[in-house]
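Dear colleague,

As promised, here are the two records you asked about, laid out in our usual form so they can be pasted straight into your sheet.

NAME FIELD: protein one
SEQUENCE, THEN STRUCTURE:
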Amino acid sequence: MNDIDSQHRRLLLKFLLTSPLLGLTMCTPGETRKAAIKTLDDLITQASEAINVFDFEKVARQKLPSAHLGYLSTGVRDDATLRANSEAFSHIKLKMRRLVDTRSVDMTTELFGKKWPTPIFLCPLSSQHAFHPDGELASARAAKAKNHLQMLSTLTTESVEDVSRERGEPVWYQLYALTDWNGTLELIHRAEDAGCSVLVFTVDLAGGIGNRETLERMKRIDDRQCSNCHSGPKYARRPMVSGMKDPELERIVTWDLLDKIRNSTKLKLVVKGIERGEDAALCMEHQVDGIYVSNHGGRAGETGRGTIECLPEIAAVVKKRVPLMIDGGFRRGTDIFKALAFGADAVGIGRPYIWGLSAFGQEGVETVLTLLTNELAMTMQGAGTRTIKEITQDYIA
């Protein structure tokens, strides 16, 4: 080796010893190289480490039994509508304004005379004890801590009374009509007695639950003895319907049934599951108090159409006469901004907060809400919008 080669070798060694890359490649005694290097696929170990809501999905996939994960993850058939809910956002572009003083943005949203600090709400999602021992109670505590609207499913694993107590105020109650009208009335009256102010009537399961193939396949690889939890009457673990004689869900709902429910309660009535402008117009004719654009998270029918794609034609009919709500695939603050720009008054999240619940309980739900709220605030600042009312279709390309 000549002098020049030796000199080059010394310079290379000096560079390596002083390089910041050294900390990424060297291991302490007893460590392996693989253990010393973190990868982008590493799971977070506490809620505060999350960068976005998808970090919680990774943890939930590790923690949940396959059948429970399948229930949360499934759409129907090929999951095309499930995917469309999220993918549709990528086809909607934003036009941002500049040189606007947005040091302070106000996300205050008003629904039926009550003000909320943001337009983000927790969707009604059933069976939350399948995802965390505290179930809906943990979600309620998180909603209380962050002051978000919470809707409670008919097929909840905690009662409306208990959830409202943990929330610190009555939640909104999501209603499935039952084949037994007296049972439906019992649910309505129980929601009224619990102090609920809004009834969210779900109408998108006509003909029954679709073929949820992803759920069925994931159930087959679950080696637990599921009968330990699912033995006994069909709805034994659902406190809102468990004591009823025949609590089967009504799969064929009509405008006549809607009118019957409307005339049976003084609660505000929101219709959930609207996907067409014509149905929105009929809702207005039937004097509903609010319209909720939803395809059941891609779990009702296989339309291949995301809810954000349905929203503009419905908003054009509603014309801000009643509150307009939406859910389906919302994962980012920009997604929420796009829905508000198209005319929504409030935006619901479902799977993301259940990922947080599955991963870290109440703290996980709180962090999901914080992340999405912060992302929406940053999007508003980037667009030059200081209030929710300033977000219009002018910002959609």
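NAME FIELD: protein two
SEQUENCE, THEN STRUCTURE:
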Amino acid sequence: MNQPNPLTSGQFNISANIESYGFAQQILRSGFISALPTLPTFLPVFRRLEFTVLDNLEHCFDDFALQLGWHALRLDEGNLILHADGLFIEANGDQKLTYCFCSFEIWADSVARAESAKAAILACSKDNRITQTMFALSWNYFSATDGIKQAILQEVADDVLHDEAYPDLKRGVTQFITAYLDAPETVLVVQGNPGNGKTRLIRAILAEMSRRKGTPTKALYTTDFKVLESDDIFRRFINGLHETFVIEDADYLLRPRSDGNDNLHRFLGIADGVIRSQGRKIIFSTNLPNLGDIDDALIRPGRCFARIKVRELSGTEAEALLVKLCERDKAKGATIMASLARLKREVYSLAEIYRAFGDAMDNEPPYLGTSPTAHAASD
């Protein structure tokens, strides 16, 4: 006996695993799942929408639930299901310190309806939506119970880099970043002591990648040695959509293989071939002080665009940076430099200079120690 085709007859079964976060949520989820067969059998058009909003997550999702005019099921403060004729949307939000990241997966019965839904969502958030350049970090770390875990961090690319902070980049920061992104070589190695601007430079590279795309670039990111011992993270980079792989504090990874380093070969394998042909990049930061501390195969021409070393600034270089930072208030720059000079040192880290500058801008006495209450400066 012929059985009816569930896709044409509209007769089909839905099963779901429900994680119980509480009795009320379980009832909500179960009730909504039981209503799903009333949706159209086919929703062939899919769109994804992502943006950030300068608002509290609960207030932001209140607006999405109440103002768009669609049926809404709120599962928690940042988890929302919306549906209407020919439309099904799952919305998720993540609260950051001063803003929230919103993502929408949209299924529709036509292109016109999907695009109309995107426009309605964007209009609902237009007053608070952040238009600054952003990038997404997929932060990978090792869990003793669950193996490799990841957290997605949406970052606002608000760092302003000055050529005076990187005097050894003779063509300036902007031209260096442009040359790297345009180059066929995959690898960049940034060396230097903590507090001298390695992370600031890497963030600026990711920001420029986002500007070129017009959407937030996606970077695979880790500082965890155990993550890099597994082939899984490399498969994720090769097969995924990440444009960049950032490995910070990679001292252990970059040492010569002759010293017993058994992990570098994975990077040597992926730095060429498909990764290079797709224009993707691999960026290492390290505190290793000398060129000889890094395996020659990684930094060979054709594979490595550059090995740059960021360093402390001399008194004259520190003064030039402060002049740039305080160009609207030269007197304040002189005051900060006088505070630095009282340390009677020949060189100053970028962290010290930016901390002194930040404290001065807050109308506080410049503090140059290492107290956790002092203003943080990127490495």
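A couple of things worth noting about protein two: DSSP finds 14 helices and 14 strands in the chain. The radius of gyration is 25 Å.

Best,
R.
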